[in-house]
Specification:
With about 100 residues, this protein is mainly alpha-helical. The chain contains 4 helices and no strands.
Length: about 100
């Protein structure tokens, strides 16, 4: 029986890195599955808005995909994700918000 909508097995860091560098879209799915909760928790420590944090986490994975050629080692994947998310949370926090009640 073919498995659907599930990841068949977990890949190690080196395998994920190799697939990501080759542009395999399944690698992003594995990376997302592995790190989405950690990144959400990191973002939640900085911002108190689940929707904003979830959006920033998704954007972080998109940026990883767009900049996959700049990833140098398997360990660089998580470092890249954490750096981008933290930077984006700080940017969001420091961006002036429009007050519609004024």
């Amino acid at each position: 029986m073919k498995r659907t909508n599930s990841l068949p097995r977990m890949l190690n860091e080196h395998q994920l890195y190799e697939l990501l560098k080759k542009g395999n879209p399944e690698s992003l799915e594995y990376i997302h599955f592995r790190y989405k909760r950690l990144l959400f928790w990191i973002g939640k420590q900085m911002l108190d808005d689940d929707f904003v944090v979830e959006t920033l986490v998704q954007d972080t994975f998109l940026k990883l995909w767009l900049h996959r050629d700049s990833i140098e080692t398997p360990n660089h994947i998580l470092g890249f994700l954490r750096f981008v998310l933290k930077r984006d949370c700080i940017t969001y926090f420091n961006t002036p918000k429009i007050n519609s009640h004024a």
